[in-house]
């Protein structure tokens, strides 16, 4: 996804337009923006800001708009046939599926280009580093390329005032650590959306207010008293250990024009991001983060603190056959209004493919609208959609859609310091770089997240 390519006014305009279209349609007024309108009105700022058109992103966005128009036409024909005949001819169903698959592919291509353009390279700037850290950085780069660790332990103590957490390894310099985290954030959607904190110990303990102070009305000359006290919950998130081991040919390390640091940063960042992304969704909490799907779940009517509330879809492994959009609306309104500002829908690509076919109860508009900026995978009733294939596919009793204000719902903790062990012995002709990182995650506010259960 592209982060902050457009100014805040333009991004706000996209959300307002999508939300307005949904509101007008719900009140019976037909309002729809064509791809040409979207391209002319919303894509212009992007074209101006990115005259190089990296990877043909502008054309992909236009193709997405045209494909969605074709999809709507074909799907309308499918729905009409079902209404009139009780079934849709195979050729129409095949056409809808084909265009839907093409839309999914276009969305993936757009997101990939956006991620690549947003993925940083290792910076050579030294701004913010202390003289000791600068000296350590220079020595560390020599250690990566040549394995020369002469004096590195002493420099590490000077730079960090402490030793490495891993025997036989060394802490990477702060700039390199920042770059790895930045690369990981372009890979893991949860890391991009959640509340991320850096800690200097094994775990982070904090208290969350479960309920606020209750005020009461007091008449003239009436005596006051204590109000109901706020309730707090204590939460602790542990930083678990993970590792990744990119490698390079020794001949490459000998080439002065090969930026080995940038290469291993990119590999480590991608690897950490992919592993974390899965952990933040489905992690068991044992030697890994507590994923959002690992908590006790309860029907939203019976929701209680410590559980994640859910809304049922109305059908086993599918959206309801009659008025399926009503359940999506129920999901959106299951979240308190205070959390809906900044909330996001998260689901797998195949789930979005099914959701894309749903219209409102009157059949006047589609719940889904494509995003003409490339920032999100689209909007559902004005709510941004983020694709994360770590979310389960739709099947009986699966929790395949999460709707949350992730920044307020989920906290990620990073243990300060990533350690590196250099190994040029195990495999002849290559050097392995074993990175060790400690990271954890867990829900911090159970009110700020809801799920859809396909049941």
From TrEMBL:
Spans traversing the lipid bilayer: 12-32
Keyword annotations of the record: Membrane, Transmembrane, Transmembrane helix
Recorded superkingdom: Bacteria
InterPro entries xrefs: Phage_capsid, Phage_capsid-like_C
Subcellular location: Virion
Chain ranges of the Phage capsid-like C-terminal domain: 168-454
Pfam hit, one: Phage_capsid
Protein name as annotated: Phage major capsid protein, HK97 family
Taxonomic placement: Bacteria, Pseudomonadati, Pseudomonadota, Betaproteobacteria, Nitrosomonadales
């Amino acid at each position: 996804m592209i982060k902050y390519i457009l100014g805040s006014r333009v991004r706000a305009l996209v959300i307002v337009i999508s939300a307005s279209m949904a509101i007008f349609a719900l009140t019976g007024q037909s309002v729809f923006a064509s791809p040409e309108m979207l391209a002319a009105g919303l894509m212009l700022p992007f074209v101006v800001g990115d005259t190089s058109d990296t990877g043909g992103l502008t054309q992909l966005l236009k193709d997405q708009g045209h494909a969605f128009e074709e999809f709507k036409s074909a799907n309308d024909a499918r729905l009409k046939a079902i209404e009139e005949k009780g079934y849709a001819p195979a050729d129409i169903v095949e056409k809808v599926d084909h265009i839907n698959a093409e839309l999914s592919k276009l969305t993936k291509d757009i997101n990939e280009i956006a991620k690549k353009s947003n993925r940083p390279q290792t910076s050579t700037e030294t701004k913010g580093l202390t003289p000791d850290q600068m000296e350590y950085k220079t020595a560390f780069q020599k250690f990566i390329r040549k394995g020369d660790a002469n004096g590195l332990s002493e420099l590490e103590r000077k730079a960090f005032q402490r030793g490495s957490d891993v025997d036989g390894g060394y802490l990477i310099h702060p700039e390199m650590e920042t770059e790895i985290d930045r690369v990981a954030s372009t890979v893991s959607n949860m890391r991009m959306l959640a509340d991320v904190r850096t800690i200097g110990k094994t775990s982070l303990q904090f208290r969350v207010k479960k309920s606020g102070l209750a005020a009461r009305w007091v008449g003239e000359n009436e005596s006051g008293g204590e109000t109901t006290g706020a309730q707090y919950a204590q939460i602790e998130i542990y930083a678990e250990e993970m590792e990744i081991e990119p490698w390079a040919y020794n001949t490459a390390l000998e080439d002065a024009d090969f930026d080995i640091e940038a290469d291993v940063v990119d590999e480590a960042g991608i690897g950490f991001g992919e592993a974390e992304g899965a952990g933040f969704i489905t992690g068991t909490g044992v030697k890994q983060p507590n994923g959002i799907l690992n908590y006790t779940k309860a029907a939203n009517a019976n929701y209680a603190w410590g559980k994640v509330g859910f809304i049922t879809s109305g059908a086993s492994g599918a959206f309801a056959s009659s008025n399926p959009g009503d359940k999506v609306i129920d999901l959106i309104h299951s979240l308190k209004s205070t959390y809906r500002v900044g909330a996001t829908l998260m689901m797998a690509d195949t789930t979005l493919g099914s959701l894309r076919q749903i219209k409102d109860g009157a059949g006047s508009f589609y719940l889904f609208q494509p995003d003409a900026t490339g920032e999100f995978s689209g909007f559902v009733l004005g709510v941004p959609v983020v694709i994360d294939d770590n979310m389960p596919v739709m099947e009986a009793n699966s929790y395949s859609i999460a709707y949350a204000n992730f920044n307020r719902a989920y906290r990620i903790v990073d243990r300060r310091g990533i350690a590196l062990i250099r190994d040029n012995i195990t495999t002849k002709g290559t050097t392995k770089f074993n990175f060790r990182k400690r990271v954890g995650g867990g829900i911090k506010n159970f009110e700020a997240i809801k799920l859809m259960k396909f049941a």
